[in-house]
Amino acid sequence: MIHGTGTSGARLPGRIDPVAAAVAARQDDVVTTAQLQAWGVQRSLVARRVSSGEWQRVFRGVVVLHSGPVTWRQRARGALLCAGNEAALSHRSAAFVHGLVPRPGADLVVSVPGGRTVSARPGLVVHRRNVMPFAGGALRVVGTEPTVLDLLDGLESDDEVVGLLCDAIRQGVVPGRLLLHARQRPRVRHRALLLELLDEPGRGIESPLEHRYARDVEARHGLPRAQAQVSDRVDGRWIRADRVHKGLGVRIELDGQLAHPFGRTDDDTWRDNAVLIALGDVTLRYRWRHVVADPCATAVQVVAALRSRGWTGLARPCADTCPVRPTS
């Protein structure tokens, strides 16, 4: 006879087998009523403890064996137990486990094999999928790359898509593996943009703003493609430029509002001065309103800078009203 205690101080009734107590502890003190009954705990006792607040019901048929605050991990464990065999955390819940998003969202999201039917319940969203791409870990969870693709299904704008992919790659997602999963998946929302970003080695796009700049300012106006994420050692420091037109001495820095909410920083000013003195490069700085709201005017300015440094290529207007003018 023992009193099983889990990581949160859970108390099980007497006459519980030590193996059962170990199972409860391994499940973060979250168990199903079916498990309790198999361990000899009567339904009436479960009901009394839940009614008194000593235990807490997180989903139908699933209880937490303590009266204190229920953690997100315990709710997630409860969702998996509620969804049954082969269920796995997915979508935003999996993204939170993988560190892809800072917050898990209000609902728990799980996926189950396509042949099973699990009813959605308050606080629980259920998806069915033909392939269950599991990742290892204490919580059963869909793998990182399939989770990124799941998140893409819920996004609307190109900027959101590029932002998600940039964040995922910064968190260690390997572009080649993500691309492989995308090609094996018959339906992926935003597939064209995904392939454009991941299937072009060395492009170096690191933010939604930079993606917009490369597409809407450079490509659409026939400008030479700048090298992305160029590192140089200047005045004893390593600095990195978003885009550099090598041989023409023109650098482009793209400052998103979230990165620099109060405008140019002291480091920005030092860097611009240093590259001008040491390398003779001129730095042009653009923000969201320049690139997204008026990419044509931005292109006009970049063309002027490039021409002043000797570029003799042929720019092109993107529409009849575009102010960009060709030059020979």
Keywords:
alpha+beta, 12 strands, 4 domains, 328 residues, single chain, elongated, three-stranded antiparallel β-sheet
Write up this protein.
Residues 22-65 form the AbiEi antitoxin N-terminal domain. It holds the Pfam family AbiEi_4. This is Type IV toxin-antitoxin system AbiEi family antitoxin domain-containing protein. InterPro entries: AbiEi_N. The protein is of the alpha+beta class and 328 residues long. The protein has four domains: 18-67, no CATH class; 74-142, no CATH class; 150-198, no CATH class; 208-308, Endonuclease, Chain A, CATH 3.40.960. Helix content is 40%, strand content 17%. It contains 13 helices and twelve strands. It has a four-stranded mixed beta sheet with strand order 9-10-11-12. Strands 1-3-2 form a three-stranded antiparallel beta sheet, sandwiched between helices. β2 (56-59) and β3 form a beta hairpin. α5 crosses α6 and α6 crosses α8 (175-184). It starts with 17 loop residues before the first helix and ends in a 20-residue tail after the last helix.
Short description:
The protein has 328 residues and is α+β, with helices and mostly antiparallel strands. It contains 13 helices and twelve strands.
Q: What characteristic shape results from the CA principal axes?
A: elongated
What's the end-to-end separation, in Å? Answer: 91 Å
Tell me the fraction of residues in β-strands, as a range: 15-25%
Q: Say how many strands there are.
A: 12
**Count of domain modules:** 4
Adjacency order of strands in the biggest sheet? 9-10-11-12
Name the CATH superfamily classification of the largest domain: VSR Endonuclease
Uncertain spans, ≥5 residues at pLDDT below 50? 1-8, 257-262
- What class do helices, strands and sheet pairing give? alpha+beta
Number of helices: 13
Give me the strand/helix succession: HEHHEEHEHEEEEHHHHHEEEHEHH
Largest sheet: 4 strands, mixed
Q: Can you tell me the CATH topology of the largest domain?
A: Endonuclease, Chain A
**CATH architecture annotation of the largest domain:** 3-Layer(aba) Sandwich
CA gyration radius, whole angstroms? 28 Å
Helix content: 25-40%
CATH class of the largest domain: Alpha Beta
